[in-house]
Design a protein that fits this description.
Elements lengths: L10 H6 L1 H5 L5 H13 L1 H21 L6 H28 L1
Organism: Actinophytocola oryzae
Protein name: Mycothiol system anti-sigma-R factor
Pfam family, one: zf-HC2
Length: 97
């Protein structure tokens, strides 16, 4: 998407990072660039508003539930297993080079 106006940060780039912006998961410099773009670009600001409302709705409807401890334990075990398997694969690859 592009609004047709020149910006320091491209509209499609801003919209691809809007969730990082909403979740405060980008560094301060990037956050300022995204915020500046949203202040200048009404089409992106409109899309940001839609995403922001969706995030609030999701948090309100889904935010109170917690995963059972048994599920968390199974996930941790699978993650550990995958990490170990990948570690073995990486070691095997380095041995062949």
């Amino acid at each position: 998407m592009s609004c047709g106006e020149p910006h320091d940060t491209d509209c499609s780039e801003v919209l691809s990072e809007v969730w990082l912006f909403l979740d405060h998961e980008c560094d301060e410099k990037r956050r300022l660039l995204l915020e500046q773009h949203l202040d200048e670009c009404s089409p992106c600001l409109e899309q940001y508003g839609i995403d922001e409302h969706l995030k609030v709705l999701l948090a309100r409807k889904c935010g109170g539930e917690h995963a059972p401890d048994s599920l968390k334990a199974r996930l941790r075990a699978e993650i550990r297993k995958t990490v170990v398997e990948q570690g073995v694969v990486i070691q095997d690859r380095s041995d062949t080079q």
